C-alpha cells in the first residue's frame, strides 16, 4: 500500500516522504512536533531514516492522557517536553470560559504558540478530515505578503503543494500529508515501532482528555477512563464562575455541575436538554465570549 501509481509510474511513498524531508532541511535543522500518536511516530522515524537534523518537541497540555506522557518519557527520552506558562485549569479561570468546538482557544494557547521562527515538521495528513484536505499542504510557507504561493503537485491538480502558513513565524512541512491511516500503520508495523497502548484499547486518536472535538460520546469515554480529569475540570469551572461573578458577568448557571452537564451533553441538537442551557445565549455567551 505504500506505493502509488500515476502517469509517471509507481512511486514509493516512504521514499517520497524521505525526499521531502531532505529537500527542505534548513541549516539549523527541523523542529518536529511530537505528540506520541501514530502520525508523529511515523514522521519521527522517517526523519531518522532520512538522516536529517531535527529536535522533537512535545507540547504538554496538562490534559494529556497519562499513558501518552509515560510512553513518551519511557520510549523517547530525547523528546523535549515543553511546558505551558499556564495549565488548562488556570486558563479556564483566566479566560472565564471553557473551550468548545467553536472557540478552540485551548489549541492556540497550549499547542500552537511554540517554536516560532522554526521550520516545523508535523504528521498532518489529508485523510484526517475534509478541512485538512482543503486547507493544508505538503509545504506551508509563511510570508509577509498577503499573496498566497500555490503550486499543484505532479499527479493531482487539486493538491496544493505550497501555501502561506496561517501560523505566523513558522514554515511547516507535512511529509506524510498524502498517507492514509492504513499506510501510517503499515509503516509503523513494518519497522517494528512500539506505540502507545491506548491504540490497542480502542482509541483511534490520542488527544486531550475531554476534548470537545471528540463529541459527547468521546468526552464521556474519556471521563469514565480518567475520572480525576473530570474533577479537575469541575473545580476549574467553579473558579471560573467566581471569576465571572467578580468581573460582573452574570452566568445564570446554578452551579459548576450545570455548566459541565451542558458542556458534555448539551452542545448538539440531538443531545438531551440541560437545565440552564439557554443561558448560553441570554448572557452574551459564557462559552463564546462577551
List key phrases describing it:
290 residues, single chain, disordered C terminus, two-stranded antiparallel sheet, Rossmann fold, 2 domains, alpha/beta
Q: CATH superfamily name of the largest domain?
A: HUPs
Assembly category: single chain
* SS field, number of helical segments: 11
Strand order of the largest sheet: 5-4-3-6-9-7-8
Main sheet, how many strands, which sense, barrel? 7 strands, mixed
**Helicity level:** 25-40%
Write down the domain tally. 2
Overall pLDDT, averaged? Answer: 80
From the alpha-carbon coordinates, what is the Rg to the nearest angstrom? 21 Å
CATH architecture of the largest domain: 3-Layer(aba) Sandwich
Question: Per DSSP, what share of the residues sits in E-state strands of 2 or more residues?
Answer: 5-15%
| Quantity of strands, as a count | 9
Morphology call: elongated
Question: How are helices and strands ordered from N to C?
Answer: EEHEHEHEHHEHEEEHHHHH
Task: State the low-pLDDT regions, or none.
Answer: 143-169, 267-290
The separation of the N and C termini measures: 50 Å
Structural classification = alpha/beta
